[in-house]
Write a structure and sequence with these properties.
By secondary structure, this protein is α/β, with parallel strands linked by helices. The protein has helices at 14-23, 31-41, 43-52, 64-71, 75-103, 134-145, 149-157, 162-168, 180-198; strands at 2-7, 27-30, 57-58, 61-62, 107-111, 126-131, 171-174. The longest helix is centred in the middle third of the chain and has 29 residues, at 75-103.
């Protein structure tokens, strides 16, 4: 099995890169989606988060909007949340990779903003960072999440700078494309070559 880690800041284009890999036959694990699934079904993660952030429970469920408002405005709170969530997400990713191995899956993509910091990168044979100009990222986040410019910029600034990904990833995918289709085409070409190299 060949495991490719995909990382980069929000709005950079990770989802498009993963979609390109899926067209080439890879199975994808989106750590953000897994986290949200765990919030719904795992009582332990809910208990830990609610113990740390006392005002985020609504009718016994984690209010993701309230939690987001807290952590995106305070770096210490974001670090605390990550300390809780990474261990649960890591365990679930390992479980799903093991299941893929049993199914004979040859290529897996792990999509995570905190791929490196969480330890997920240690599972990967190669790590690809997706980067994009800040202004493009801000506009994408505003459009995607319905946020104000101020809130979108706050999310960008709360995450690792582009230099972090350039220093810690094996490859960098530049997303300065004018359309998603153009970037997806660039990703397909890149991953075709990467999979060829990885299969040698």
């Amino acid at each position: 099995m060949y495991i490719i880690g995909i990382t980069g800041g929000t709005g950079a284009g990770k989802s498009t890169a993963v979609k390109a890999l899926e067209t080439l036959g890879a199975k994808a694990l989106d750590c953000d989606v897994i986290y949200h699934e765990l919030l719904s079904v795992n009582a332990d993660i809910k208990a830990e988060i609610s113990a740390q952030f006392s005002d985020v429970l609504t009718d016994g469920e984690i209010d993701r909007r309230k939690l987001s408002d807290i952590v995106w405005n305070d770096a210490h709170s974001l670090k605390k949340l990550n300390q809780i969530t990474h261990k649960y997400v890591n365990d679930e990713v390992t479980r799903r990779i093991d299941a893929f191995k049993m199914q004979g899956v040859l290529t897996v993509a792990i999509d995570a903003i905190a791929l490196i910091e969480s330890g997920q990168g240690e599972k990967c044979d190669v790590i690809v960072g997706v980067v994009a100009p800040q202004e493009i990222r801000v506009l994408r986040i505003m459009d995607r999440d319905g946020l104000s410019r101020e809130c979108a910029l706050m999310r960008v600034n709360a995450q690792k700078p582009e230099s972090f990904f350039r220093e810690n990833c094996d490859y960098i995918l530049e997303n300065d494309c004018t359309t998603e289709a153009e970037f997806e085409g660039r990703c397909v070409e890149f991953f075709e070559e990467l999979l060829r190299i990885g299969g040698e």
